[in-house]
Predict the 3D structure of the following.
Amino acid sequence: MKDFRYFIVGGGMTGDAATEGIRELDSTGTIGLISAESDPPYQRPPLSKKLWFGDPFESIWCQTVSRNGEMFLGRRITAIDPVAKRVTDDEGTQYQYDKLLLATGGSPRQLASAAPVGQSDLGKGLVTYYRTAQDYRYIRKQTETKQRFAVIGGGFIGSEMAAALATVKKQVVLVMPDQGICSRVFPAELSNFVTDFFRQKGVEVRPGETVTDVRRDGERVVVSMKSGNELAVDSVVAGIGITPDVELAKQAGLAIGNGIVVDEFLRTSSPDIYAAGDVAEFYSPLLEKRVRLEHEDNANRTGKQAGRNMAGAGEPFHHLSLFYSDLFELGYEAVGEIDSRLETIVDWIEPFRKGVIFYMKDARVRGVMLWNVWKKVPAARKLIAQPGPLTAQDLVGRWLAR
């Protein structure tokens, strides 16, 4: 049995950030980190962004190895015993811990087939559910010989991958059930603009289409849709969201909500077990509700804070994380509750090219999207903290000028 002062389950950005947080306060305590991936921790956003625009693959690696921990790659933890403070992996190896961090992230959602059981190729390797460095390597290799790609999903990953593949001169068909790109976060008029913008860039956008099956037909892959339409391509990439990996936490008897429930110190219902990153559900004082966030800033911030608290810092986590995206030459940063179902107030400097979108509820700003506007995230957090009431007259033409 291996014995560690700190043990981290999950080898993503959150796990890496936790090792950094630990080392800020404890330079010698033993750290173990286990990951189901064969790669050491790396930055995930470049997989659908900068790597496609010229950054070298080597630029993604985190500095985990420099923090003198022991990494166990290509392994999964299968059981946690909170009483004995012990975890067991899929090879039967056991690890003792003083403090444990669950940074298990999430698993890509899978397409649901309408074909009879045993007659569908879904889940048999024809669809790349894009999330890992290995997925990037595979799709990048395919672009060397394949020309026509279907991208399923019009949200963050789907839209970024469609833009990335089009940038490297591939034929791209973007298939999505919604009526416009990122329609669940963009106001309707902005979603329509972005959808048309993608078409101008050569992407064939097919909104309102639900994929029911994917099958091989000779050298091609055929995507079937609920409408009866079919699409023949060389390769299929799906980005339709993730489901938080909470099974280990459930097995350990930890409190589960929309993710693993943690307090303001990122502790679970078992005091020596912490959770952070995509899988953690925590209370946001600014938004006045519990949230679970799936973005880079949240992974890094919660991971580092969890590491510090495991090492004895005792610091509450109250940060409201930002997220961002790049869609060809368009880009944005956003913070707070970004949901197109909320009332929106738009302040364009240049329509659809530069401006700010305010997401409102009960005369308060709940979220801010900075569309090609930069260095305003701290001010946006302060705006979200204001009790209101605020109206369009208070915001349009005024807030940006401050």
Summary: The CA atoms of residues 323 and 344 lie 18 Å apart.
